[in-house]
Amino acid sequence: MAETVADPFFKGNTGRNTRGILRLSILVLIAAAAIASRLFSVIRFESIIHEFDPWFNFRATKYLVSNGFYDFWDWFDDRTWHPLGRVTGGTLYPGLMVTSGAIYHALRALTIPVDIRNICVLLAPGFSGLTAFATYLFTNEMSTSPSAGLLAAAFMGIAPGYISRSVAGSYDNEAIAIFLLVFTFYLWIKAVKLGSAMWGALCALFYGYMVSAWGGYVFITNLIPLHVFVLVCMGRFSPRLYVSYCTWYALGTLASMQIPFVGFLPIRSSEHMSALGVFGLLQLVGFVEFVRSGVPSKQFGTLLRGFVLLVFGISFGGLVLLTVSGVIAPWTGRFYSLWDTGYAKIHIPIIASVSEHQPTAWPAYFFDLNLLIWLFPAGVYLCFQKLADEQVFVVVYSILASYFSGVMVRLMLTLTPIVCVAAALAVSSLLDTYLLLKSPEYPGDSATEAGSNGTPAPSKKAAKQDGLRSMRQPLVGIYTTFSKMSVVSALTSYLLIFVLHCTWVTSNAYSSPSVVLASRMPDGSQHIIDDYREAYQWLRQNTAEDAKIMSWWDYGYQIGGMADRPTLVDNNTWNNTHIATVGKAMSSREEVSYPIMRQHEVDYVLVVFGGLLGYSGDDINKFLWMVRIAEGIWPDEVKERDFFTDRGEYRVDEGATETMKNSLMYKMSYYNYCTLFPPGQCQDRVRGVKLPDVGPTLNTVEEAFTSENWIIRIFKVKDLDNAGRDLASAASFERGNKKKKTIKKRGPKVLRVE
Amino acid sequence: MRPLAIATAVLSFASAAVCVEKGNLTKPLTSKLILPSTFRPAQNFKNANLVHIINLEKSYPKESINVVIENVASTPQDEYFIPFTSQQMATIGGLEVKDRKNPESPLFEVEAFIIYLPLTGTNRCYSDTQFYRIHLPEPLAPKAQQTLGISFYYLSALNPLPATIAQADKQYLVYTLSAYCQSAYDTLKQKTEVKFPSTTVPEYTIVPGTKGSPESPQKQGSKFTYGSYGEVPAGAVEPVKVRYEFTKPLIHVSELERDIEVSHWGGNIAFEERYIMTNRAANLSKQFSRVEWASQTYYNPPSTAVKELRFPLRVGSLEPYFTDVIGNVSTSRFRSNRREANLEIKPRYPVFGGWNYPFRVGWNADLKKYLRKLSGGEGYVLNVPFLEGPKQPEGIEYEHIELRVILPEGAENVQYSTTVPLVSASTSLHRTFMDTTGRTALTLTAINIVDDLRDRELIVTYDYPLLAGFRKPLVIFVTILSLFAAAWGIGSLDVTIKNKRS
Questions:
Q1: Taking CB atoms and an 8 Å limit, are A703 and B331 in contact across chains?
Q2: Which chain regions cross the lipid bilayer (chain B) (predicted)?
Q3: Rounded CA separation A409/A416 (Å)
Q4: How is the beta sheet containing B309-313 ordered, strand by strand?
């Protein structure tokens, strides 16, 4: 090889430094790319918090920043779940808010005037850069190839499966949790490899941080014990394993118990039992190993058998006893739905009503992971080739995460890191093979490459003389430049297409704030449909400070965050009965709903109606879930069947059932809607049906505000009538109807109080 | 014959006292002087001729009094008093006095007086009658005459009647005035003109005629004239109530915070204004109906709702933004070219009577157009508009304005001048963007301002030494250098526990 000018930079000590700087700059660029690709929504719209849950996190962060940590810890929020309230400080994962609060105060200490909203919006992209770095570290533990880590970091940075939960504005627990997940795993691998208590303790520390940040910490709580269990079953018990696991478990459990929301769950709930069990198992195995070293092998066999039986009997009996007596909490519904995808739909409609709890469709894998999904098995296969402790972890992780990602859409998120790692292992192994492979010395040949010394001519002649024609060429198969070139260029183009795909998916699928809708004007310019904020701002400015708003729970967090008004139910669906009460009020006749609303001191009712604009995520389309959830509590009063026609259709037009037409939700959605159209042309553009010309009448509520495109409609609940009439007859009198002579057979329906 | 005797309303100082503890009518103004209750302005003047013009074309009454005063004392006098009730005193704004004969002359010095009643104990009670004192630049010689042009306006003085109307109804406002101009001196001849926005004035007080004066008012299109009247003693009032159509919003800004940030390094001047806006118009008698509103927008009838606000900014303004508490408001437009820079913003919803809409707007501009370096030395002159709020045909009133001019870090010797009446001014330090000592901030407070004063200038001069400009780069450089040094120092420490020799 010829000496080049650059040579001194790539050899020896300087070479190491050069490579280090290159690696660092590549990582920084990857982090920059990861952050930049998440900013679509900020550039297109504005720096705004997205969707639903992030609004609560944002509100909690503002509370933390303005009231301090201890107030936040003790926060009782009387502006949600009216009249119950919520012990918010004890029922949330504070990691996210505390992180952004810490960043906020750090920047304030440097007198950089940054709005807490911007910190919240940009937290997820910022942490995605850190995730890329953590993936790099994690992958480097798996492979000796220098490119694997960088590739994994690049994949992690732009994989849509992770971007879906970490675009700017998506201020949710996952924003920091995925970084913590990957980093905890990295520390765990490091601890197992070195058998070091320090790394185990660090792992426990980050595990504690993870527990404070996301309910998905249970994934770590189960994956690490599973890894240890598999290793023990493979006969790989070692003091390294014992030290690292015991350190992690003892410290990690203590750390996790510091979070009020988790509290004593780690020793009481079934989800955490595997970690405890493996902890016990390790003690036993350690004890047995100790005994083995001191007892002759013949007696040892008998001793072991008896010992195993005894321990198994005691622990199993104890577990059953504790579960039956209720010391250990039974499995939660969300957990059951992890195993049986049909479970939720039958037993807990509220879990099934959330779209992210649905089972994953096959195309979603390709959509979210693209080429990684077919590189993934190859990467896992490569792990089997050199099956050290850390490779076992990859295998275990892939199997577990693959299963869970098939059960719930949102768990795709936990699969993504390992897919990136495995795919990077596969790609780097391919690249290493084709880029770095030195052509072997041909027997009898001194060298093959041009510019090398020696005389190749006579040996070539000799080769020609014997055997197959293909054998005459000294370099065949993968050694030729052609094969190297073709494989590498194909791989490069795949990777480039992957980048294109990621950009496209991020830009089109995951970058809509959903609070703001965008449409195009006829001249191609962007038109923003901002009805949500219009209505929320109206509520915030022009209603009483403590006016209670009733709406379906989807909008609870947004009302709390943007309109700053107390709500009856919100996205923290902890009280199914309360939600069912709202569902009942929405799906019943006005005579039934009114007492419910009065009892809950409701001042305004907010409904979302997309009929004018063709906005399909409106309340009429969600209505059946309200009915189902209400039916779960009041099967006698609300019946889903009544909302379907005789032919089993869900209709809103002329052919809708009487129950449907009389339900408060239907009436509020279509109230006054038809006056907007010329007679006979009243149309619902979501459901594509023509509506009757005479709209519903409302007696107990009155229209208070309707947003520009009718997406949000707010109704004011009327006060009791001054003259003591019921509101229906009072409204009828106002309209100038004659009083009916017929005597009512029954009084108005009364809310059954239990 | 006449229901009200003129003499009954001679100023009676103790008739009504206002206590601070009871009502919030008298806002404590730093520029106010307190006098004992025995104070009465000396009858040194008489008003030879007086024309009182009340302009009701905007959403606040704008009054101007053109008066020829004559010194009836034997010595030269330079103090002329105008009386107001404490109610008026709380809402009066922008009182300015000029020499009518000489429009080029500077504004006269004006001071507010409160008559203080030393009543029981600690109660700080004020008399119902208070004064403004006009300080004539040159004492008026005995028997000499001078023509004063006094102009002022009241905030929140117009009230809708009926107080609630339907969405598409017309709005009527009520205003109470006096046919005789309130004065601390005898007036020989006077008349009061009321200018209405339209000819629709369904109700007004008719003052019967007396000797020498016909029945008032005389109507002339949308202008009503009361008088003229002959000699009227000091302090006489003749209440007149008018009710007229005004189907426009009454935009009331209860608080405006305006920040002007000067950056020498960036060559940029940044403006930000935070409004707390309310519409004082008649409330809706029924709830808001979107159908009606949507069908109306096609033929755009007059409405009491605020639909749009237009900010004519200085040419060359850049990068405007319009946000409220929950984020950017997308319904804004900015037209900028070489001749104009108009920011047109629409609130998220039409702001009807009784509704609130707080918002924030801001923009940047090239500093060169506002700042000039004084030749020689380190002095700078900054010339910015005091107020750049929206320019609406119906006008806007500002109850409280806090203007903050944030100068670069290290600016000193700050002086300012403006013709807008201020109540307080102070300088403080404002720390931001990694400041070490903090930037010098000049805070000016004004109350009861209307958009008539929109184009008044504020001139700020200050010294900015060259070294102060290099303070921040130096501080950051030294900090980062010491961070590196510390990292290097810590990195080279050996903290391992193992035996050194092995």
A1: no
A2: 474-497
A3: 12
A4: B309-313, B341-345, B332-336
Distance (Å, whole) CA B206 – CA B158: 20
- Amino acid residing at B246: F
CA within 13 Å, CB half, B117: 18
Please give the share of chain B, as a percent, with pLDDT higher than 70: 90
Stretch (H or E) spanning A517: strand A517-520
Residues from chain B contacting residue A703 (CB–CB below 8 Å): 287-290
pLDDT band at A456 (very low <50, low <70, confident <90, very high): very low
Backbone angles phi, psi at A144, to 5 degrees: -90, -10
Which ranges of A559-633 does DSSP label H, i.e. alpha helix?
576-587, 590-599, 619-633
At B120, which amino acid appears?
T
Torsion angle in degrees (nearest 10) through CA of A464, A469, A470, A472: 0
* Arithmetic mean of pLDDT over chain B: 85
Cα–Cα dist A341/A305, whole Å: 39
| Tokens linked to B50 | 């007086």
Interface of A with B in 385-414 (CB under 8 A): none
Instruction: Check CB contact of B180 with chain A, cutoff 8 Å.
Output: no
Q: How many CB atoms lie within 10 A of CB A700?
A: 23
Question: What structural domains does chain B harbor?
Answer: 6-245 (2.60.40.1730), 251-311+346-469 (2.60.40)
ipTM of the complex model: 0.89
**Tokens matching residue A479:** 């050694």
CA dist B256 to A266, A551, B307, B361, Å?
Answer: 54, 35, 20, 11
Mean pLDDT of B479-488: 96
Query: Per residue in B295-334, pLDDT tens?
Result: 887 888 889 999 999 999 999 898 999 999 988 888 888 9
- Could you give the domains of chain A? 575-734 (3.40.50)
Of the pLDDT bands very low, low, confident and very high (cuts 50, 70, 90), residue A341 is low
B324 vs chain A: nearest CA distance in angstroms? 9
Q: How many CB atoms lie within 10 A of CB B316?
A: 14
Nearest CA in chain A to B433: A112
C-alpha distances in angstroms, A664 versus A401, A478, A594, A699, A735?
44, 72, 9, 10, 20
* DSSP for B99-124, written as a single string: ESS-TTSPPPEEEEEEEEE--STT--
**Closest-CA distance of chain B to residue A546, Å:** 16
Q: Where are the alpha helices (DSSP H) in A165-272?
A: 174-194, 197-213, 217-233, 239-256, 265-268
Q: How far apart are the first and last CA of chain B?
A: 122
Q: What is the pLDDT of residues A545-588, one digit of tens each?
A: 999 999 999 899 999 999 999 999 988 878 889 999 999 999 99
- Asked whether A60 and A101 are in contact (CB, 8 A), the reply is no
Tens of pLDDT along B408-443?
Answer: 998 989 999 998 888 889 999 998 888 888 899 999
Label residue B501 by pLDDT band (50, 70, 90). low
Q: pLDDT category, A302, cuts 50, 70, 90? A: confident
pLDDT tops 60 at residue A251: yes
pLDDT at position A113 is: 87
Which long-range CB contacts under 8 A does A704-707 form with residues at least 24 apart?
A704/A604, A704/B287, A704/B288, A705/A535, A705/A538, A705/A539, A705/B287, A705/B288, A705/B290, A705/B349, A706/B288, A706/B289, A706/B290, A707/A531, A707/A532, A707/A534, A707/A535, A707/B290, A707/B349
Sign of CA dihedral B304, B305, B307, B309: positive
The chain-wide mean pLDDT, for chain A, equals 86
pLDDT digits (tens, 9 = 90+) for A96-144: 999 999 999 999 988 888 999 999 999 999 999 999 999 999 999 998 8
Q: Which positions in chain A touch B434 (Cβ < 8 Å)?
A: 110-112
Q: Closest approach of chain A CAs to the CA of B358, in angstroms?
A: 8
Alpha-carbon gap, residue B328 to A562, rounded angstroms = 13
